[in-house]
């Protein structure tokens, strides 16, 4: 047998059958498809997380403990998973977006100057120097968590909670606008002189709606103390409190249930179309 004929014979004997080659090809294709699926999934997840913060002039990826000197009006985005323990200097009229997975805990809190905007999707740990003065805007997004002391919402200030918010007290001044979605827990009094829109569960010690104040509620309210209304109070959900006082010149409307454990006092207009329980 010539050498070339031997080589052909050898390759023919050891050549994989068409069936084996087909199986191997299928397995390779499955492996490639699985890898592609994984790559696409990671890409989409990354895009989703980054999409929470848009229009970024400066992007900071955590974990990070660096110091940044900001330019007024810059949009700063903190993304990734981990702690931000650095510093943001010269904060003046900036937009700050904190991504999901970020624990915002700067070593020294900025002086939040100017008409700033903050959007929190993560955990806002250090709240020092955070004052909600006129012209500012704060949004705690659906995945956001923040705990604050007694806060005062100024005129022309926008404050939105769609995540988890804890406060020791909340005052909304005339011209201020507050939306409480998600879950809000207040260990002290909520006093409203502006616009208060309740779209999520609210648990509070008490509520005072002052003259000129407007409260609209589409989610349940639980007040462990009383509710005093001197303005306009409209609810399409359930309200639970110890006492309810509706003073002269005010308007109180409830299309849900009203449950009281104490006294109901009405000196003005009150409309209740749902059930009433525990009223004395």
Topology of helices and strands:
Elements: H1 3-14, H2 18-51, E1 58-64, E2 67-69, E3 75-84, E4 87-89, E5 95-98, E6 102-104, E7 117-120, E8 123-124, E9 137-140, E10 145-147, E11 150-153, E12 158-161, E13 164-167, E14 169-172, E15 177-180, E16 183-192, E17 195-198, E18 201-209, E19 214-217, E20 221-223, E21 227-229, E22 232-235, E23 239-241, E24 244-246, E25 251-254, E26 258-260, E27 264-266, E28 269-272, E29 276-277
Parallel strand pairs: 1-3, 2-4, 3-5, 3-6, 5-7, 6-8, 7-9, 8-10, 9-12, 10-13, 11-14, 12-15, 13-16, 14-16, 15-17, 16-18, 17-19, 18-20, 18-21, 19-22, 20-23, 21-24, 22-25, 23-26, 24-27, 25-28, 26-29
**Low-confidence parts lasting 5 or more residues at pLDDT below 50?**
37-50
Count of β-strands: 29
Calculate the mean pLDDT score and round it. 88
User: What Rg is obtained from the alpha carbons, in whole angstroms?
Assistant: 29 Å
Structural class: alpha/beta
Name the overall outline.
globular
Question: How far apart lie the N and C ends?
Answer: 114 Å
Beta content comes to: 35-45%
Oligomer: single chain
Largest sheet: 27 strands, parallel
Number of helices: 2
The percentage helix is 10-25%
């Amino acid at each position: 047998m010539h050498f070339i004929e031997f080589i052909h014979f050898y390759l023919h004997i050891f050549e994989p059958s068409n069936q084996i080659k087909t199986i191997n090809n299928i397995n390779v294709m499955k492996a490639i498809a699985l890898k592609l699926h994984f790559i696409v999934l990671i890409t989409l997840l990354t895009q989703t997380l980054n999409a929470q913060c848009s229009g970024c002039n400066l992007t900071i990826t955590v974990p990070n403990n660096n110091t940044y000197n900001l330019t007024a009006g810059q949009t700063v985005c903190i993304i990734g998973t981990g702690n931000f323990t650095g510093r943001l200097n010269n904060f003046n009229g900036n937009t700050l977006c904190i991504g999901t997975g970020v624990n915002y805990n700067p070593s020294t809190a900025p002086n939040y100057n100017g008409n700033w905007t903050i959007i929190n999707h993560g955990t806002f740990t250090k709240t020092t120097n955070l004052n909600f003065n006129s012209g500012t805007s704060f949004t705690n997004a659906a995945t956001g968590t923040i705990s604050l002391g007694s806060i005062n919402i100024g005129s022309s200030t926008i404050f939105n909670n769609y995540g988890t918010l804890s406060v020791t007290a909340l005052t909304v001044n005339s011209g201020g606008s507050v939306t409480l979605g998600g879950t809000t827990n207040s260990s002290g009094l909520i006093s409203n002189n502006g616009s208060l829109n309740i779209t999520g569960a609210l648990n509070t010690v008490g509520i005072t709606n002052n003259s000129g104040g407007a409260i609209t509620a589409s989610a349940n309210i639980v007040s462990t103390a009383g509710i005093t209304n001197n303005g306009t109070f409209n609810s399409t959900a359930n309200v639970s409190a110890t006492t309810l006082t509706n003073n002269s010149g005010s308007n109180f409307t409830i299309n849900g249930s009203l449950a009281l454990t104490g006294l109901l006092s009405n000196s003005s207009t009150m409309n209740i179309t749902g059930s009433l329980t525990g009223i004395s």
